[in-house]
């Protein structure tokens, strides 16, 4: 928004209410992905399969790894042989009944390597009447590392860092990870043979593809070295890729492809779409007209911002409205600033949107359901028509900050950082834009939004 175009007094007065409503909607989305509730419900339904197992080996991997494991334990306690939990350093804490390992995220580290070795060891010597209970949530690709012979953890870190900075999508990154791992691309399930695997998955990927979630630990797929090489080529990473990685991929092209474990059942128990459904349900009860971005919001963050702003402008015509979306954008890192994809998306929306000609008040929130956005102490960003003037008033140029991927200081200066929260889950990112003030018959400002029923069956909103 240019500094000489400011909202009128009435518009500015309702912004705190809209901001509170947006924040409560974000929390409703997180609540819909509560791993404890979802695991407990799923394992109640799986009681016959659990009862039939001689012994159970529990492997829980991801940002929600500890929460999922704790919810699962009462269902398998008497049959539990081994339990390995690999999660983030922020979430890790000791359990007297499980080995808990803190892995690296977003880049693998020695802890990730330790986690991979612990999982391989726990799967050794299983029988066909045993059961592997696999609990998977977002972040598992980095947290768990088991590189093939000849590839060091340092080489994996170099590769992962290059992929993160290249702007590659999550599906592309995980295709490469799966091809350079003993556990990913169905490797964990193959190591469990002849035992069956029951996998409960919290999905943070497009289409809830089990071959992409945590790089497909239990997927009925085989690693695809040809696709991995194509991803590296597409993003200009072949010349800089570690030689050990390229040698492994070349060898894998000529080797027989491994046979998947035929005794695997994958259940997606929570997903980004379910969390967006929760926001949509609350909004429709509030009386707002809701427009939903179809499918998965992905691709370059600049293009995602343009798409969202176009829908926001359309939604602003016709009374109080909302736009909801979910997914995971990618940022091509060109500068050395601080930020994350959600903060950059929020700043881009603020710059693109300006003030609506009608004077409609608005807010826009983009946040990670894991409560963290990039290497910062923020979960995302929450902007409004005054955000840019607050930044400029603090002496910051938002356009210049954006050019060097430095969204975090800009949002801190304007008071628009979404607070860091420990959510114990991860189903990627969610976005919500609120346009127009809520009237007396609409939801009164968000303080009780997340207490509303969010699981009711509702007719779908218009998809654009």
TrEMBL record:
Q: What class of enzyme is it?
A: transferase
What Pfam families does UniProt report for this protein, alphabetically?
DUF4147, MOFRL
Q: What are the record keywords, sorted? A: Kinase, Transferase
User: Which stretches make up the MOFRL domain?
Assistant: 322-429
Q: Where is each MOFRL-associated domain found?
A: 22-249
User: Molecular function (GO) terms listed?
Assistant: glycerate kinase activity
InterPro entries under this entry? Answer: GK-like_C_sf, GK_N_sf, MOFRL, MOFRL_assoc_dom, MOFRL_protein
Q: Which domain of life is it from?
A: Bacteria
Q: What is its EC number?
A: 2.7.1.-
Q: Where is this region: Disordered?
A: 442-464
Which GO terms of the cellular component aspect does the record hold? cytoplasm
- What is the name of this protein? D-glycerate 2-kinase
């Amino acid at each position: 928004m240019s500094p000489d175009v400011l909202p009128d007094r009435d518009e500015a007065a309702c912004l705190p209410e809209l901001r509170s409503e947006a924040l409560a909607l974000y929390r409703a989305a997180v609540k819909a992905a509560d791993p404890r509730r979802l695991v407990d419900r799923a394992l109640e339904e799986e009681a016959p399969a659990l009862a039939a197992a001689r012994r159970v080996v529990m492997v829980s991997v991801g940002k929600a790894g500890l929460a999922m494991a704790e919810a699962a334990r009462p269902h398998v306690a008497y049959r539990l042989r081994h339990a390995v939990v690999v999660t983030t350093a922020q979430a890790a804490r000791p359990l007297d009944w499980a080995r808990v390992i803190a892995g690296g995220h977003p880049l693998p580290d020695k802890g990730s390597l330790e986690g991979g070795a612990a999982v391989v060891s726990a799967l050794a010597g299983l029988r066909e009447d045993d059961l592997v209970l696999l609990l998977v949530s977002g972040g598992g690709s980095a947290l768990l590392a088991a590189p093939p012979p000849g590839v060091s953890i340092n080489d994996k870190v170099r590769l992962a860092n290059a992929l993160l900075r290249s702007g590659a999508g999550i599906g592309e990154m995980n295709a490469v990870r799966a091809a350079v791992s003993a556990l990913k691309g169905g490797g964990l399930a193959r190591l469990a043979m002849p035992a069956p695997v029951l996998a409960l998955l919290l999905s943070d990927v497009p289409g809830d593809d089990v071959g992409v979630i945590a790089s497909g630990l239990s997927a009925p797929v085989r690693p695809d070295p040809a696709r991995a090489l194509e991803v590296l080529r597409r993003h200009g990473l072949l010349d800089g890729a570690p030689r050990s990685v390229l040698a492994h991929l070349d060898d894998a092209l000529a080797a027989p492809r491994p046979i998947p474990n035929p005794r695997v059942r994958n259940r997606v128990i929570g997903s980004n779409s379910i969390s967006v459904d929760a926001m949509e349900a609350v909004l429709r009860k509030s009386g707002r007209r809701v427009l939903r971005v179809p499918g998965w919001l992905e691709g370059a963050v600049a293009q995602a911002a343009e798409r969202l702003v176009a829908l926001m402008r359309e939604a602003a015509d016709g009374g109080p409205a909302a736009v909801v979306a979910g997914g995971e954008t990618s940022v091509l890192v060109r500068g050395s600033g601080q930020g994350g994809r959600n903060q950059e998306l929020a700043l881009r929306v603020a710059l693109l949107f300006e003030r609506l000609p009608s004077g409609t008040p608005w807010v826009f929130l983009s946040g990670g359901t894991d409560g963290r956005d990039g290497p910062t102490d923020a979960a995302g960003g929450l902007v409004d028509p005054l955000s840019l003037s607050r930044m400029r008033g603090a002496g910051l140029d938002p356009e210049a900050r954006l050019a060097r991927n430095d969204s975090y200081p800009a949002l801190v200066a304007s008071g628009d950082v979404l607070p860091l929260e420990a959510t114990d889950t991860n189903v990627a990112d969610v976005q919500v834009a609120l346009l127009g003030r809520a009237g007396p018959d609409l939801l009164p400002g968000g303080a009780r939004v997340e207490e509303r029923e969010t699981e009711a069956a509702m007719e779908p909103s218009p998809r654009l």
